[in-house]
Design brief:
The structure holds two protein chains of two kinds. Chain A is of the alpha/beta class. Chain A is built from ten helices and ten strands. Chain A is 40% helix and 17% strand. Chain B is mainly α. Helices cover 66% and strands 5% of the residues of chain B. The chains are: A alpha/beta, B mainly alpha.
């Protein structure tokens, strides 16, 4: 896949596969094109060249709501919650693309609509408990602590019932304790049959959590493999630390 | 505790519930109180209230567009016009004088919904190409639309009756109606009832029923997945899209539903006035309705209703009556000389007040917004937004996508 913005090549002919049931990490120095990659996969950008294939379906250039419906959920590097909606409403909104109430049902509050609302409210509560926010359900998203906001965003993404979860720097700004909790959460998500694909700067998280890693530098793929291999790859070390004399 | 007690207990401190309750009570007793207070000659005021209901309907509809979905629509009166003209075409002799040569007389109850659906369709048509625009750009496009539509009707020649418009529209009919002392008769039941300007209470009752109907539906929408999606799109379109919301469809729906409400109100308006003309749907109507929503409390249905009442009262009762009132006041204070015009240019106090009507109106608006910047009855969300607004500037900008 390639993505160019005018003359700037953000992602240059990068190819990789994420296997079902693994934790896959995309790493690289700032400006390497990681988030651009995410935006191409989730349909916020259209790749200049190349394709996005998900479970044998071509998703290249399909809009974000359709990729979400196809089973790809994401979080954002700079948290994007609905600030003035309660935590539980944020998660309920995440169910939107899995709901079947039509305009008619909403207008007349049909039994079907009530039943569906009840079900997704229960499910939202479950997800909030899963990320440890059960007691914050009625609080406005903006009033939550930073770490709680990050976890709420994960809960909202999980509400779309994804097969693949894209996490954009989920551990950014976390304390060591919070990082441990995050890794636990990632394992729980994995146990639910959801593949996790993350961008992360924190090497400890990446090395411990992920099975396979792709390294980008200046939009190019410079390495791919299990953590131990990537860690010792001279090109990776060079990209991160500069060329040694 | 019984269920009724529980219901009262849970709502007694909720400003929205209290407002709904007070609105319902005053809607119920308004005609009786007015007739009593004016000694039986209050028909004019009851009719005025029915007209006010038209604005209230529009405010409820615009609240969906602006308050729920956050789309600034400055041409809302266009849909009002479309509803009115649709009613005029399908429920009068007018189509007979057009090249079609055959007039339609669809019953009011059906025509009301035709007006609504045509307006909703127009909303979808306008929305489809424009809702990709955001914020200010959308406002400008809708402003243009609001100017174009009345002009088209004014210049529609034989189809729309041109500048004089279309008159002698059908009035609503019912198989029967209550009569009583309020129209100077004994209690009873008249069959085959026609709404006329002699019985404005009937229009008033009809308006209250329509508003109740619309409020229930819009309130249901607000609490549904659709209402939640509107809120989400207003807060952060990118995040909403990533969470699986088709933002274009959702915005289109808000636009269409708002337009439908306006068309509904327009059809009623046409029927009550029995006359439509392109002059009645100018920019000032759009702005007035927008002011009602903002002043009442954006995103809150009872707020928009309250705003509609307050502004309508000021615009159509307080200000027209102010010159007389002030003359009376001046005389009773012994300042009768203020009432006389003088040769050196003083036109008399009534004239001064009447000339500065809109200055007074503007001052009242500014005053209310200074005292209650979130609106008379704000939604919880808006309250929070305003409270935190000052901190927002310091927080890091959240723009990500182009």
């Amino acid at each position: 896949m390639t993505k160019r913005f005018g003359g700037l090549v953000a992602v240059d002919n990068v190819t990789f596969d994420v296997e079902e049931g693994e934790v896959f990490a995309l790493i690289g120095p700032n400006g390497a094109g990681k988030t651009t990659m995410f935006n191409c996969i989730t349909g916020f950008y259209k790749p200049t060249l190349g394709t996005v294939t998900f479970r044998n379906r071509n998703l290249t250039g399909s809009p974000p709501h359709r990729t979400a419906k196809a089973g790809i959920a994401r979080t954002f590097q700079n948290i994007r919650l609905f600030d003035y909606m309660s935590a539980i409403d944020n998660v309920r909104l995440g169910h939107h693309c899995r709901m079947h109430s039509k305009l008619w049902d909403s207008l007349f509050k049909t039994p079907f609509e009530r039943g569906e609302e009840r079900r997704i409210t229960e499910h939202s509560m479950e997800l909030l408990d899963l990320v440890g926010l059960g007691r914050q359900a009625e609080n406005y998203a903006r009033n939550l602590a930073y770490g709680q906001q990050r976890r709420l965003e994960i809960a909202r993404a999980l509400a779309t019932d994804p097969k693949l979860l894209l996490l954009d720097e989920p551990a950014a700004g976390f304390t060591p304790q919070e990082k441990v909790e995050l890794m636990e959460l990632v394992r729980t998500i994995l146990a639910r049959g959801i593949t996790v694909f993350l961008i992360e700067h924190d090497m400890r998280v990446v090395m411990e959590a992920s099975q396979r890693i792709v390294v980008l530098d200046h939009g190019e793929k410079i390495a791919e493999g299990p953590p131990i291999e990537v860690r010792n790859n001279p090109r990776v070390i060079e990209a991160y630390l500069g060329k040694s004399a | 505790m019984t269920r009724a007690q529980e219901f009262v207990r849970s709502n007694v401190r909720n400003p929205n519930a209290i407002t709904y309750f007070l609105l319902a009570i005053s809607a119920l007793f308004f005609p009786a109180v007015v007739q009593f207070a004016t000694g039986g000659s209050g028909d004019y005021l009851v009719g005025l209230a029915a007209d006010g209901g038209v604005y209230m309907l529009m405010a409820i509809g615009l609240n969906v567009v602006v308050g729920f979905a956050g789309l600034l629509d400055l041409g809302y009166a266009a849909f009002f016009a479309i509803g009115s003209y649709t009613y005029a075409l399908v429920a009068s002799n007018h189509l007979g004088v057009t090249p079609i040569g055959h007039s339609l007389h669809v019953p009011f109850w059906l025509a009301l919904f035709i007006g609504m659906f045509v307006a909703a369709g127009a909303g979808a048509l306008l929305g489809a190409p424009t809702l990709r625009l955001r914020g200010d750009y959308l406002a400008i496009v809708t402003l243009g639309f609001g100017e174009i539509v009345p002009r088209v009707f004014r210049n529609g020649g034989v189809w729309t009756g041109g500048v004089p418009g279309i008159s002698a529209l059908d009035v609503p009919k019912l198989p029967g109606w209550f009569v009583g002392p309020w129209v100077g008769l004994d209690f009873g039941w008249v069959p085959d009832f026609r709404f006329t300007s002699a019985n404005l209470t009937a229009y008033y009752v009809l308006m209250v029923v329509l508003i109740t109907f619309v409020v229930i539906l819009v309130n249901n929408l607000h609490g549904s997945r659709l209402g939640r999606a509107w809120m989400a799109v207003r807060e952060d379109e990118t995040a909403a899209a990533a969470s699986g919301v088709n933002t274009v469809t959702i915005k289109l729906l808000a636009f269409s539903i708002g337009a439908a409400t306006s068309g509904f109100a327009g059809a009623f308006y046409g029927a009550k006035l029995s006359y439509v003309s392109g002059e009645n749907f100018g920019f000032i109507v759009s702005v007035t309705v927008l002011a009602m929503v903002v002043l009442g409390g954006m995103g809150n249905i009872p707020g928009a209703m309250l705003g509609a009442i307050v502004l309508y009262f000021i615009l159509f009762w307080l200000l027209p009556n102010a010159p007389q009132q002030i003359e009376g006041l001046a005389s009773s204070l012994g300042l009768g000389w203020l009432n006389q015009s003088t040769p050196d240019g003083w036109p008399g106090i009534a004239e001064v007040v009447s000339r500065s009507k809109y200055v007074i109106f503007g001052l009242i608006l500014v005053g209310i917004m200074l005292l209650r910047p979130q609106g008379l009855l704000p939604s919880q969300i808006r309250k929070q937004e305003l409270k935190h607004g000052e901190h927002e500037a310091i927080a890091a900008p959240r723009q990500l996508q182009a």
